[in-house]
Design goal:
The structure holds 3 protein chains of 3 kinds.
Chain A lengths: L5 H28 L10 H28 L7 H24 L20 H32 L2 H4 L2 H4 L9 H33 L5 H35 L7 H16 L13 H30 L8 H23 L2 H7 L4 H29 L6 H27 L16 H35 L1
Chain B lengths: L23 H14 L1 H4 L10 E4 L4 E3 H7 L2 E6 L7 H15 L7 E6 L6 H10 L8 E5 L2 H11 L4 E3 L4 E3 L3 E6 L2 E7 L5 H11 L19 E3 L6 E3 L2 H22 L10
Parallel strand pairs in B: 3-4, 4-5
Antiparallel strand pairs in B: 1-2, 1-5, 3-8, 6-7, 8-9, 10-11
Chain C lengths: L1 H18 L8 H27 L8 H26 L13 E8 L2 E5 L6 H6 L2 E2 L3 E3 L3 E8 L4 E6 L5 E7 L5 E6 L4 E7 L11 E7 L8
The chains are: A mainly alpha, B alpha+beta, C alpha+beta.
Chain lengths: 472, 268, 219
Amino acid sequence: MQRLDRNTLYWMGVTLVVFPILVLLGLLMRAVQAEAATGLQALFYPAMTLHGLGMAGLWFVASLAAANRVLMRYIEPSAAVNRVALLGTLVGVVLLIAATLIGGFAPGWYFLYPLPLHGTWPTWSTIAFLVALAVLGVAWLLWSLDLLRAIAKKYTLRHALAWHYIGGASEPVVPPAIVISTVSLIVCVACLVAAVLVLLGFLGDFVLGAPADALLMKNLTFFFGHVLVNLSLYLAVAVVYDVLPEYAGRPWKTNKIVAISWNCVLVIVLFAYAHHLYMDFVQPVSLHYIGQIASYSSAIPAAVVTIFGALLLVYHSRMRWNLTSLFMYLGLIGWAIGGVGAVIDSTIAVNFKLHNTLWVPAHFHTYMLLGLVPMVLGYFYHACQEAAPQQESAGLHRLLFWLFALGSAGFLLMFYFSGADSVPRRFALYPELIESGSSLALIGLISASVALLGFLIYLWETGRRWVKALAG
Amino acid sequence: MGQGPRRLTGPQDELVPGCRQRPRQLLWALAAVCFLGFAPASAQSPGAVPDITVRLVSGRSATLSELWASRPLLLALFYTRCVGVCSPYLLSLAETVAAQGGAGTAYDLLALSFDPADDAAAVAAYAARFGLDGRAGWNFATANAEDITALAAAIGFWFKPDTARGQFDHPALTVAIRDGRVVRALEGIPVNARAFRETLWELRGNFVPTYAMPGQNTLLSCFEYDAVTGKARPNWGLLLLVMPALVALAACVVIFAFAPRRPDSAPR
Amino acid sequence: MRCSRFGAAALAAFAALPAQHAAAADDTVQTIALTVFLLAGIAIIGVFVWVARTTAAPRDADIAAAYRLRRVLFLSAMALVVIVLGFTLPRSPYASNGATDRLVYATALQFAFVYSSEPVTSREDLGKVETITDLEVPAGSTVEFRVTSLDVNHNFAIYDEAGVLVAQVQAMPGYVNRLRVKIDEPGRYTVLCLEYCGLAHHVMSSAFIVTAPADTSRG
C-alpha cells in the first residue's frame, strides 16, 4: 500500500476547500443570468474571471498532484519542489482572489490581450494579476521539470514515451501512467513557455508602452489555455489508467497501440489550439484547416484506444463499484460526451454559428465537471480511504453519485440547449432578443445546486477520511 | 447625414504655413448649402461622387465616369495661382506615385483645378512647370464652377476665397475613387507613404487586412502583408509561436540526456 | 424520481426551443449540431451503461475479438473523419475575392459598433469619417463587412429577429476581418458583441435593416 504523503494531503485539502467556493461563484453567475440575483450583477464579471482562472488552475494542480502521487509508485519526484509549487500556487490564488473580488479585476479567463489593460479596474489589480501569473508559471514550471527529471532518472526518453513498444518490444515494462505523464509534462512545459511569452507581451505594453500584436498574443494565449486544460485531463486519465485496474481486477498495460496513440496525442494537441481562432478570418486559412484536422484527429486516439480500452477493462470484469470506480467511470463518460460537443464545435462551418455562444462553456464544462473532476475526486477518495479506511456505505455513495451525475448533466444540458439557441456566452444579462437565455440559466442553476449537494456529501465522505489521514 | 468632412489621414499631417485651418461652422454652412442646393446628387449613397464633366488640357472633355471606368482614379484638387500648399503637395504626390508605381496601369490621377478662373492653358503651363505634363497616368483638367462646388461637397473638400490676397484657403487633399465611390481620402503634406500604399490596395479591390497601432512594434507580428503583391510574408512573430513547442522539446531532450540514471531505484 | 423530473424539464426546454424561432429563422446548423450531439450522447451513455451492467456476470473477455472490433471502429472513425472533413472544410465562411454589392466598414470599440463607408483605423478617424447611422442593405445583396476594433477584441455577430445567429466574425485591433453575408429575409438585424470586452459587454449592440427588394434604396 502506498503511503499518503503530506504534500498530496495538502493538495487535496486545497482542492476540497477552493473547489466549492469557485462553484458558488459559478452559481452566482447563473443566478445573475437567470435574473434571480440582480443585486449581484456588479460582481458578475469579476466572479467570472476568478471562477475561470480558478477552476482552470485548480484542476491543473489537482490533476498534477494526483498524477504525482500515482507516479511515486515508479519514480522519486522531489518533495521540496512539490512544496514550492504548493506555496507558489497558494500565493497566486490569494493574489487572484484579491485582484478580482477586491479590485474588481474582470477581463475574464482567458484574459485576452489587450483587455486586462483596457478595463475600469484599478491598476494595482492588474499588477496583482500579472504577478500571480508569473508566480504560478514559475511554480508550475519547476514542478513539471522536476517530474520530468524524476522520470528521466529511471527511464530513457525512448522508454518513457514507449517507443520501444512501437518497435515490437515489451521490455522494459513502462506503465501507462509514465507514458501519459511524460507526454503531458512535455506539452506542459510548452504551454508554460507560451504563458511566459504572453506575460512578456503584457509587460511590454504595460511597462514600456509598446503594444504587442493582438493576433500573435491571441495565438499564444489560446495555445497556452488549450494545452493547459487538455494536459490536465490527460493527467487525470493517467491516474485512471493506474487505479481503475485495481477495482476491475484486471491489468491495463502499455502496448504498441497505446504507445502510438499517446505519441500521436503529443503532436496533435500542439496544433489543435487553432480551433479557438476560426473566427479570426485574418488568420491564414491553412492554420484554420490545420486546426479542424487536428481537432478531429485528436478524437481518434481518445475514443478508439483509451475509451475503448477502458470499456474493455470493465467489460465482464469483477468490478468493485464504489465511489472511486463510479466516479472514474463517470469521468470517462463525461470525457467522451464532452469530446462529441468539442468535435462538433471544432468544425469551422458549425463554429461560425456556435462560436462564443454557450455551446463553448457547454463542452468544456462537460470535460471538466463530468470528466476531469470526477476522475480526480475519485482518486482522492481512493487515496484517503486507503490511508484511513472506514466502513463504506454503498447506498450513500450511490446517492451522491446520482446527485452529482444528474445534477451536472442537467446543468450542462442547459448550456448545450442555450448554445443551439444562439445564447451568447459571458453575458451578465441577456437582451430581450435572446429569449431563452434566462429561463435556461434558471434550470441550470437548480440543476447545478443538486450537483453541489452531491459534492457536499462527497466532501463529508472524503473529508473525514482526509482528516484522519492528516492526523495519522 | 454626415458629421463633418470626410477625411482619412495617416499619422501626423503637416500643413504648410499660409493655409489657415477653417472653423467648423463654415464647413457646416458650406456643406449645408451644397447638400441643400444639390440634394439629388448628395442623396445618393454615401461616398458617391457626382459624375461631372471636366475639360482636359488636351482640349477633350470627359465625364468622371469615363475616367474611372477603366481604372480607379486618384483625384487631387489645386489651382494655378496658389502660392501656398498646392505646389509642394503636388510634388509630394508625384514623388510618392513615382515611388509606389502603378500610375497609368493600376490607377489614373486627375489633378483638377477648382479655380473657375483657370483655363486649359494655365493648367497646362502649371503641369509643365512641375514636369508632370505628359507623365503616364496623369491628367490635368478644369471644370465649371457649379460642378466643382458639387464635387467638392461630395468629397469633403472645402475652399474659401481670400479676396485680399487673391488666394483660396484650402486643404491638401486627394481622394481615391473606385466605381464612382470614394474609397479613401489622403490629407496633408507630405503624402504619407504607408497610407498611400493602403489606398492603392483598396483601389485594387483588395482589402487592407492590417494596419499599425500607434507605437506598435510590427516586427513581432506573425505575418507581414506586402504592399505591392497583397500577399502575406512570414514575420518574426511566427518564430515566437513555435518557440514554446521547440523549447519544450529541447528541455525534454536535455533533461533526459543529462539526468543521472539509476534504473533500479526502488519504488515506494 | 429525480431522473424523470430532470428529464421532463429537459424535454420541456427542448420542446420549447422551436417555438421561440420564427418560421423564417435559419437555424439549420444549430439544430443539426444539437441533434447529432444528443444522439451521440445517448449512444455513449447507452454503451457505458450496458458495459457497466456486464460486471454483474464476470468472465474472461475475448481480447482478440475486442481488438478486431477496435480495428473496425478505428477504420470507421478514420473514414468518418475524412468524409466529414471533406464535406465541411469547403463550407468554411472565409471570403475569397469575389463580387460584392456593398462594402461597409464596421468598427467596434468599447462599447459600440460604428458603420462607415471608409476605413477607420484610429479614434481620430472617427471624428473625421462620415459614419452611417441608419444602415440599410437590400435583401439578397452580398454585403461585405470589414470589421476591426479600436481597442480590445470584440466580435461582430449578426442576429435575426428571432434571435438566431446568422453570421459572426471577430473584431481585432490592428486587423481587418472580412465578413461576407447575403441576407435574403428582410427585417431588423441586431448585431451583438460576442467577445467579452469589458463590463458593458452585454449591452454593446447595434442594428441594421435589410430592406425588401421592392423598396427603393435610400442609401
